[in-house]
Amino acid sequence: MSTQTPDFDVSNFERELILRNMRIDDYDSMVSMQQACFPEMKPWTREQVESQLQHFPEGQIVIECDGKLVASSSSLRLDYEDELEWHDYKKIADSGFIRNHQPNGDTLYGIEIMVHPEFRGMRLSRRIYDARKELCRAKNIEQMIVGGRIPGYHKHSGEMKASEYIDRVIDKTFFDPVLTAQIANGFSLQGLIPNYLPSDVESCGYATFLEWKNLDHVSAGKRRFRRTVRPVRIGSVQYQMRAVKDFEEFAQQARYFVDVAGDYKCDFLLFPELFTTQLLSFLPNERPGQAARTLAEYTPQYLELFSHLAVKFDTNIIGGSHFVVEDERLYNVAFLFHRDGAIDKQYKLHITPSERKWWGVVGGPGIDVIQTDCGPVSIQVCYDVEFPELSRLAVEKGAQIIFVPFNTDTRSGYLRVRTCAAARCVENHVYVAIAGCTGNLPFCENADIHYAQSAILTPLDVTFAREGIGAEANPNIETVVIHDVDLELLRRHREQGSVQNWNDRRLDLYRVDEMR
């Protein structure tokens, strides 16, 4: 969390989502969850869970939300054989005891995944599948195999065969809560297994035979030539301002973009600076300074909305920025909503003459670098990116990506932000994402017109995108641009680039120090 000690406490809006290895003291909660998920099936015995933890502890995974167990996963390793009785769940899982686990097996076999019914729709199964994939990469396991339930089949079993139902799920005619998620997570269908789990009445005993290949697998004795990458997917929203009738209509528009980011598996989604001024369109027409403080009264709803969306759609969200009143002072604050439920914030430090004149905004106390699950990042709100010292300080603290939510009314204002953001890439060997507003808000003083061209920018060298533009929106069109940046490429560029601005600084002549 930030080292700043603001008057406004965000902890009331945070959630704590933790993915970790299973422990035996999770047993009672797991049984309760199994009974909620599969009421017709007999839950694991304590002896089965103890045996799983004894033979393969790193393969047993759970997720807890605010201290409550909400999802779990069990697996083991085996050597793949065509003759192995993959169709027989009891044999392949050793009736749940996994005493047949092979520590060096080339296949990770998934026994079970379950998500508590009250927490479905939060992409928890995707988080577990991603954790399993990371386990395969870390242990150099060649593939993952699962016998997947098809719990939607019982609704159609009287009118079609199981194979026909599966075809309809794959071509998106039907939605199956398990198979649809597995296909979305990169599994390919290899076959259909009858009598896999007879007690599974929803699936009519059937299961799908699904496979995921680890493309990073290296065969024994072979040299790996594929370059190492550390990809991070960034989405940058170009948000159209328009009149809304209430907060819920604003929330629906924001939710749309987060849903898109979730579908594209974005690690970060960046909204523009002060896009919440859209709320002024339905608030009483007041002088700008008072209108900004009235807008700040929506801070709790804003925090609750984006904290929920970040967890639900498994995306770290930079929620643009928003007016916040602390100790009777008005600040322009950018919030980072982590997908594990935590919240960080960065104050705007440099206040434009317009903000000072119209709204009475004051500058915040300092620059922070925020630790995320994709590495350290910095947020610099609009005007802040036009001061190169901030990026120097942020990169000194480890930042690799700088997020710049901006809000400009003219093309010249936008170009100041864009030009300086591109310069920060060159000076500091970092990626910079910028996101702005377009559209109009009639009768909202100092927030009436907007100009933007959102983009994801890179350093300028032969290993990066042409002209240092990873992705770029068309001007003044509502959209979202998405681009993958490679943090490993960034590290190599700093050490081996055509020019090495960071390493070649003349620290004997000048330096940038933070004063606190």
From TrEMBL:
<feature type="domain" description="CN hydrolase">
    <location>
        <begin position="232"/>
        <end position="487"/>
    </location>
</feature>
<dbReference type="InterPro" id="IPR016181">
    <property type="entry name" value="Acyl_CoA_acyltransferase"/>
</dbReference>
<dbReference type="InterPro" id="IPR036526">
    <property type="entry name" value="C-N_Hydrolase_sf"/>
</dbReference>
<dbReference type="InterPro" id="IPR003010">
    <property type="entry name" value="C-N_Hydrolase"/>
</dbReference>
<dbReference type="Pfam" id="PF00795">
    <property type="entry name" value="CN_hydrolase"/>
</dbReference>
<protein>
    <submittedName>
        <fullName>GNAT family N-acetyltransferase</fullName>
        <ecNumber>2.3.1.-</ecNumber>
    </submittedName>
</protein>
<feature type="domain" description="N-acetyltransferase">
    <location>
        <begin position="17"/>
        <end position="216"/>
    </location>
</feature>
<dbReference type="Pfam" id="PF00583">
    <property type="entry name" value="Acetyltransf_1"/>
</dbReference>
<dbReference type="GO" id="GO:0016746">
    <property type="term" value="F:acyltransferase activity"/>
</dbReference>
<keyword id="KW-0012">Acyltransferase</keyword>
<dbReference type="InterPro" id="IPR000182">
    <property type="entry name" value="GNAT_dom"/>
</dbReference>
<keyword id="KW-0808">Transferase</keyword>
